[in-house]
TrEMBL record:
GO molecular function: arogenate dehydrogenase (NADP+) activity; NAD+ binding; prephenate dehydrogenase (NAD+) activity; prephenate dehydrogenase (NADP+) activity
Family matches, as PANTHER family: AROGENATE DEHYDROGENASE 2, CHLOROPLASTIC, AROGENATE DEHYDROGENASE-RELATED
Lineage of the organism: Eukaryota, Viridiplantae, Streptophyta, Embryophyta, Tracheophyta
Keyword Oxidoreductase: yes
GO biological process: tyrosine biosynthetic process
Matching InterPro entries: 6-PGluconate_DH-like_C_sf, Arogenate_DH_2, NAD(P)-bd_dom_sf, PDH_N, Prephen_DH, TYRAAT1/2, TYRAAT2_C
Record-given protein name: Arogenate dehydrogenase 2, chloroplastic-like
Pfam family, one: PDH_N
Domain Prephenate/arogenate dehydrogenase: from-to ranges: 78-355
Species whose genome carries this gene: Olea europaea subsp. europaea
Length: 375
């Protein structure tokens, strides 16, 4: 066992022979500051600090699994440029930002303060916007201005594989414009969220989101980018519906356009709430509120850029005329009974035929008309 005195003598001898070590009083050495300022001369700048023991070679905690998860999450985040930052553009941007995506915004009007409050960057110039090299260009413009806005974008400043997405209510028109204007190295995704700021204010759960992958480059990264964008709506609870643009427009003419048309008609009637509203009447008032809050440009676009809309207008007109004839026919029957009594008992009033189904020509073909005239 080595004694403290032997250590002391050894240290003193070493100091005398080498001159490298100063003389220390080992009996006074402790875990407190030295009593004399001359001791530990090479650490004189630390005289006011307490003694600290550090282990610089200690292993630091490292969660590799958390690192991989974080790295994967970052790889799925997109830079999305929203062109047209009105009510609907802001409505979608909130969800994008909430899920951790970066949002750039541009619009004709100045929405810089609103963008800042949401956590988005607003660009007044489209050149500055495109120089940010977004992964996705999302068009949230009106239907009638879509083509002019798309043609005005300086697409040469974008990455050659940028994904273009629209959210228009008419799909064949948007698809054709994209294919005509954009070079083939850009990807195209046509979508339609079948809801808006009013109908989606309480969440998007089970609300339909329609899309068609029109043109996607043959690279894994480009397929992954499309899926990452669609995942935004999946995570919000949307019911994802993949169908062609032509199928969408056919269905939308018989549902969305009819809904907007009836809402506009009821708006012209200036309906008011009453103290005895029924549930059905409340539904009509809600319909008026939902459709009237949309711009007329939207309704006009639904009519102008969906080739199936005119057929629905004609069907509505025929349906209203048929309903009037049925009403007046019953009234005529009541009057005749009052005039002629039982003389016409047992006679059945004619029943009007139902309207043909959607897609059935409402007017006879021209050749059939000519043949009937010849006879």
């Amino acid at each position: 066992m080595i004694s403290f005195s032997s250590v002391q003598s050894t240290a003193a001898a070493a100091a005398g022979s080498t001159g490298l070590l100063p003389h220390y009083d080992f009996h006074k050495l402790s875990f407190s500051l030295p009593s004399k300022p001359t001791q530990f001369r090479c650490y004189s700048h630390r005289r006011q600090q307490g003694l600290r023991i550090r282990a610089i070679d200690a292993a630091q905690p490292y969660d590799y699994e958390a690192y991989l998860i974080n790295r994967f999450e970052q790889s799925t985040k997109l830079k999305i440029a929203v062109v047209g930052f009105g009510n609907f553009g802001q409505f979608l941007a909130k969800a994008f930002i909430r899920q951790g995506h970066t949002v750039f915004a541009h619009s004709r009007s100045d929405y810089a303060s609103i963008a800042q409050s949401l956590g988005a960057a607003f660009f007044f110039d489209t050149h500055d916007l495109c120089e940010q090299h977004p992964d996705v260009i999302l068009l949230c413009t009106s239907i009638i201005s879509t083509e002019s806005v798309l043609r005005s974008l300086p697409i040469l400043r974008l990455k050659r594989n940028t994904l273009f997405v629209d959210v228009l209510s008419v799909k064949e028109f948007a698809k054709n414009v994209f294919l005509q204007v954009l070079p083939t190295h850009f990807d195209i995704l046509c979508t339609h969220p079948m809801f808006g700021p009013e109908s989606g204010k309480n969440g998007w759960q089970n609300l339909p989101f329609v899309y068609e992958k029109v043109r996607i480059g043959n690279e894994d990264s480009r397929f992954a980018r499309v899926e990452n964008f669609l995942d935004i709506f999946k995570k919000e609870g949307c019911r994802m519906v993949e169908m062609t643009c032509a199928e969408h427009d056919k269905y939308a003419a018989g549902s969305q356009f009819i809904t907007h048309t009836m809402g506009r008609i009821l708006e012209k009637l200036q309906l008011d709430s009453t103290p005895i509203n029924t549930k059905g009447y409340e539904t009509l008032l809600d319909l008026v509120e939902n459709t009237a809050s949309d711009s007329f440009d939207l309704y006009y676009g639904l009519f102008m850029y969906n080739k199936n809309a005119m057929e629905q207008i004609e069907r509505l007109d025929l349906a209203f005329e048929a309903l009037k004839q049925e009403l007046f026919g019953h009234l005529h029957e009541v009057l005749r009974k009052q005039l002629f009594g039982k003389a016409e008992a047992g006679m059945r009033s004619p029943v009007l035929a139902k309207l043909p189904k959607n897609g059935t020509p409402l007017l006879p073909a021209q050749s059939e008309t000519l043949e009937n005239n010849d006879n």
